[in-house]
Amino acid sequence: MNSLNSILLEGNLTRDPDGKATPKGVPVCTFTIASNRFYNPGDGVQKETSFFDVETWSGLAERCSIELKKGRGVRVVGRLKQERWQDPEGKGRVKVKVVAEHVEFKPIFARKEQEQAIEDDENEASVVLEEQEMESVL
Questions:
Q1: Containing H/E element for 56?
Q2: pLDDT in tens, 117-137
Q3: What is the pTM of this model?
């Protein structure tokens, strides 16, 4: 019987994804996400950032290699996988990573375009108000 091993993470890519293939040709894509947590211990808001290595396989790996770029927001659903090995000095090493079963891509917003559009809207609104004020004076 399998034990429960499930994780849901949301964050942004810290670098562009690394897409490769196994010797048998199965696509695999790895990337790292940063996930922020804000909390208030009583002396002001504190920020805690955690970094998670994510691994995707097959069709999901191909899609992630194409769609993802540094800074893109994602929501990852998957499982934790623990890898163990010996380093060259004979020390035991352990690493935990996320094997993604589902990745949602957050929308990309063009900040400069959005800011310009908001500024344009504000300018148009002020012109309309100025025209209305002039009409009321006349």
A1: strand 46-57
A2: 556 555 555 544 455 554 554
A3: 0.74
